[in-house]
Every structure is written in C-alpha cells, then in structure tokens.
Fold:
Amino acid sequence: MAMLLPAHEYLDKLGIPYERATFSPSTEKGAAQVARALGFRERQMVKTLIFETDRQERLLVMVGGDQNVVSGNLKKIVGSRNIQLANSDAVKTTTGYEIGSIPPFSWQPEGFRSFIDVSLMQESVLGVGTGVWGNEILIAPPALVQASRAQIVNLVDKGKPALPDLA
Structure:
C-alpha cells in the first residue's frame, strides 16, 4: 500500500483527480531522472521552485524539468526588480519540505502567490513532488492550476509577453 501523504489528502479533500506514481528512492535527484524512471518527457516533470523578493515575499514558480525561468519575465510578473531563488533553509521554513520533492500545493498560507508556465498547459499530464522522494503525483495541468491556485504566465520564453493573453 502506497503512503498517504499530506499532498494526497489535500487533493482528495478538494476532489481533484490525480494518480500516484512511485520510483526508487535511490534515483538520483532531478526532474530528468524522475522522468526517465517514470517513462515521461523531462518537460512533464515539474520543477517547484521557491523565489524570494526584496520585499521578503516568497513565491512558488512551476516550470518543466527542462526549462529555466527568464528572470526578466519573473520580475515583471511579480512586480519586483530584486528576486532570487530562496536558499534551502528559506525553502524548508516556507514549505516544510526539503528541495527536491516540494509539492506545489497543500502548504501555502492564504494569499501566497504561485505561478505556472503557460507551456505546461499543453501537456496531457504533469508530475509533481509529494514531499517524499520516490513518490510523485501525476495530474492534468488544469487540475494542477486549481490545486496550487497558480496564475498561468510566461516564465520561460524571452520573446513573448510575461503575462500572456489567455482569452
């Protein structure tokens, strides 16, 4: 029987559909390794990143495992010129989890801002961490947006506006 984790309980409580997946806890850390272990493309395994601004605000940012955040886009989206990845202590304090398997939902206080890259909405399924290495949640992009209360934005394409017109 697979472990029932807080991330699972959160999704169950909200009635959001998902599937559980497991891989060997001895798998090397990283989205590429999780994708390989579970038979997905790296883009489908979501990196859950915590950034902090000069106003002491912490934010959740989700991009595909093969993507990198364009800092200029993130600065425009957040409305801060000074933004950086949070250090491991700040991540643990903010989320309650270690870097490497942070679930993108279930721990955020009211008003916590979360963002997901618009390109991930094209995928049929995404994989996100559960807080326990070796356990993954497979979830449809719209369900992930609902669960994380994320704003859909352009985080990775320099050539397009940071705030896409989703109409």
The chain has a mean pLDDT of 95. Residues 6-14 form the longest helix (9 residues). The radius of gyration is 15 Å.
